[in-house]
Amino acid sequence: MEEALYDMGSKRRFVGIELNEDAILDETTILEFRHLLECHGLTDRIFSEVNALVRERGLLLREGTLVDATLINAPSSTKSASGTRDPEMSQTRKGNQWYFGMKAHIGVHADSGLVHTLLGTTARTADIAVFDELLHGDEEGVSADRGYDYPQARE
Questions:
Q1: Taking the domains of the chain in order of start, what are their residue ranges?
Q2: CB atoms within 10 A of CB 123
Q3: Closest by CA position to 106, among listed 117, 114, 95
Q4: How far apart are alpha carbons 101 and 74 in whole angstroms?
Q5: Residues in Cβ contact with 142 at an 8 Å cutoff, skipping those fewer than 6 apart
Q6: Contact, 67 vs 135, CB < 8 A?
Q7: Cα 75 from Cα 96, distance rounded (Å)
Q8: Distances in Å between the alpha carbon of 11 and those of 20, 21, 97, 109?
């Protein structure tokens, strides 16, 4: 996230940071904030509240869903509070490249591009393992890449 904030103006605008005026948080601070939110059960509550507001305003349609996953790289030295490797992170290989970190699995409304489902897993979790959890159940169609070799994922 730290690197993305430096590289992408859209992410800086989303969080309200001006590159030449505001300090960008380092990855350790961002990770500690994420753990604080998780510790208090706020990530799911915040995401649910945002989705409820989007639905209430009629911005989220339900016809189709796009599903995909992305690796979130972390330094292999990332440690938990107990001084061990964070159990939510693991190593995986994509092509000939090894990664350490987490994976974000995302369900997106096909027409608007709005995210309706977001799941975080260890990097080694297979995409298909959480496929059903990425769907809201009212889809008329689902689009996915080869990582989701599943009959419902084909149009």
A1: 62-153
A2: 22
A3: 117
A4: 5
A5: 64, 65, 66, 67, 135, 152, 153, 155
A6: yes
A7: 18
A8: 15, 15, 26, 20
The string of pLDDT tens digits covering residues 87-118 is: 778 888 888 888 888 899 998 887 777 788 88
pLDDT 10s digits, 46-73: 888 887 887 787 765 567 788 888 888 8
**Ramachandran bin of 31, using left for φ above 0, alpha for ψ from -120 to 50, beta for the remaining angles:** alpha
pTM of structure: 0.59
> Could you give the CA distance from residue 120 to residue 22 in angstroms, rounded to a whole number?
28
* Contact status, residue 12 vs residue 5, Cβ threshold 8 Å: yes
Q: Give the phi and the psi of residue 151 in degrees, each rounded to 5.
A: -55, -40
**Token pair for 100:** 């350490």
In this structure, the chain runs to a length of 155
The token pair that represents 64 in the structure block:
């189709």
Nearest-angstrom CA–CA distance, 2 and 8: 10
Q: What is the pLDDT of residues 9-45, one digit of tens each?
A: 777 887 888 888 888 888 888 888 888 998 898 988 8
Q: Helix (H, G, I), strand (E, B), or coil: what is residue 94?
A: strand
